[in-house]
Amino acid sequence: MTCNLLSIGRHSISKRSISFRSFSSLPLLLFSIVDLHSLTSVKMNGRDAKEEEERRMNIKEGSREMAIALLACGLDSKKCILFQQSHVPQHAELSWLLGCLTPNNWLESMIQFKTKKEDGTLNSLGLFGYPVLMAADILLYGATHVPVGEDQRQHIELTRDIAIQFNNYYKKDYFVPPTSIHTTFQRVMSLKEGRKKMSKSDPSDYTRINMNDSSDLIQSKIKKATTDSTKGVSIDKENRPEITNLVEIFASVTNKSTEMIVEEFKDSGHAAFKSALTVALQERLGPIREKMDSLRANPSLVDSILEEGAETARRIAINRMKEIREIAGY
Fold first, then answer.
1. E-only strand ranges, the chain
2. Is 291 an annotated catalytic residue?
3. What single DSSP character describes residue 13?
4. Residue 30 DSSP class
5. Using one digit for the tens of pLDDT, what is the confidence trace for 233-253?
6. 169 by DSSP, 3-state: which?
7. Which pTM was predicted?
């Protein structure tokens, strides 16, 4: 969660994830900005005092920036609860309780834990146990449906296992194992490497489209995006991963099917295809960028939305934890 690095891979701008109307049939919508999770990104080696200070500032600023992005993409704070995770202390309390019921080998098998260890992130207790905190984020509110990308499926399965473990241990069917919500495009890949996920943490800004990129910068990034030597456009993740990724991005921002995109550009050169994709991204991101700029100019409004959401979330969490404590016997 880094200020000014909210990419379309992280916060999709189409029906892939932030089509909030698709969740309107659910009784209660909660959007938690998980700032406690961002604390696990500590790297002890090669980081000077200035870099560490910037990291801490980015956590604070990034929370507001995340809220701005969600609101700009269409989230209506009057119809849902938007809040910061750290402002509801019951998340951490439930995480501890669930952690006492979660076997180490469940956490050792988590793919993201293994990946983080390899990239230089401190192999801390927080990093090891953060999937339990994620489970607490979900189970605290009795959430039944959770929209996730492909890389988060394992975490939802772990959450289900933890819920069942709790129910079995205390012999009470309290937690309902949540269901994942998956949409057509579950992962956006890097503009430079079609087999690598688009990431805000990549050192090169040209690997991603940020939600606040200018129209000129979007044009430059798409122009320099990796393609291949084969003429035309097609879907082939094995042999043409970069072109496939661009087609899926095009489809997601226009709400067209990938088949429609391929049919339209199957005989086109890459330059023509990229030009059309650039226009589609500019048209989709332009209004969002303007809304983000407007919200940044009114930080007190954003902060008030987050605080109001936290107050509502706390009321729910306090009542839920009262019930959970009674079950657990403390």
1. 30-33, 81-84, 145-147, 179-181
2. no
3. S
4. E
5. 999 999 999 999 999 999 999
6. helix
7. 0.85
